[in-house]
Design brief:
This protein is of the alpha/beta class. The protein is built from eleven helices and eight strands. The protein is 49% helix and 13% strand.
Length: 276
């Protein structure tokens, strides 16, 4: 087990340094996600993204330039025993010291027909903020990556009728003084999967009751808007290899002179306000 842990850590330092650790460090610097004295709750769901995030933070601590603290926080929303055991076993294998607390979120959303995933995500976020603050943390870190960002942009346009993105950091509206950061913001999902497979690791996908039922019944993958968007981007990339980068940059290059209307702090502004 010690050898396996060393192999996983070495792979981040060497083989996947350019694809994973460098963009991780770049996001921290470019978006000013980490400051001296921060205490960060690294939120671990048991999936590949959050487990990699934990290891990247540990690697950063090995040669940190300033002092910061980490808590590796796991919220058990009602996992089946086998799923929780897998999280604990992976954490032990990878040398990640977990702090686990329990909730009953799965039971609360299990019978919700409309947007159960949305409600589940909001409830998870609230519990994580609350528990992180109990441990003296001022930030929570989530494992969203580059592909999550571009998919969110396209989903907003095609399904929400709006231009928006997943921000690299956000101030909490309900927990004063708390902040959410996304250090894997510039890391591609394909590189995370390569890292996982290279090390022979098996992580949870989504461990909610709905997903588990689909797996038991051997059904095809659940259809969802995000999966439709993934497929659309994959199709577009076949004709334009730059489509992903262009989507990402599109929300950095917004020309307000060509925008009909936009919102700022909840207030809508129209181009006619300044048109003469």
């Amino acid at each position: 087990m010690v050898e396996k842990k060393a192999q996983i850590e070495l792979s981040i330092r060497k083989k996947f340094h350019k694809q994973i650790f460098s963009p991780f460090a770049k996001a921290l610097n470019e978006y000013q996600l980490l400051k001296e004295g921060d205490k960060v709750a690294v939120c671990i769901s048991g999936g590949k993204d959050s487990m990699l995030l934990a290891k990247c933070f540990q690697e950063l601590q090995r040669h940190r330039k300033f002092y910061f603290e980490l808590v590796f926080l796991v919220m058990d929303p009602g996992y089946h025993a086998a799923n929780r055991k897998r999280i604990e076993q992976n954490a032990e294998l990878m040398g990640v010291p977990l702090t686990i607390f329990e909730t009953h979120i799965f039971d609360a959303v299990d019978h919700i027909e409309k947007s159960p995933c949305y409600l589940c995500a909001r409830m998870r976020r609230g519990y994580l903020y609350s528990k992180a603050r109990e441990y003296g943390c001022n930030k929570i870190a989530l494992g969203h990556h580059y592909d999550d960002v571009i998919e969110t942009i396209l989903m907003g346009m095609l399904y929400g009728g709006q231009i928006q993105t997943m921000m690299p950091k956000l101030h909490s509206t309900n927990f004063q003084g708390m902040e959410l950061i996304r250090p894997l913001y510039l890391v591609r999902e394909e590189h995370i999967m390569h890292w996982r497979d290279y090390n022979g690791l098996e992580f949870l996908q989504c461990a909610c009751h709905f997903t588990e039922q689909c797996e038991k019944e051997n059904e095809m993958e659940m259809t969802s808007k995000r999966k439709e968007i993934k497929e659309l981007i994959r199709t577009l990339k076949q004709k334009n290899p730059y489509v992903e980068g262009n989507l990402f940059k599109s929300v950095e290059n917004v020309n307000l002179n060509t925008i009909i209307a936009y919102k700022k702090d909840g207030i809508k502004h129209h181009f006619l306000e300044a048109y003469e």
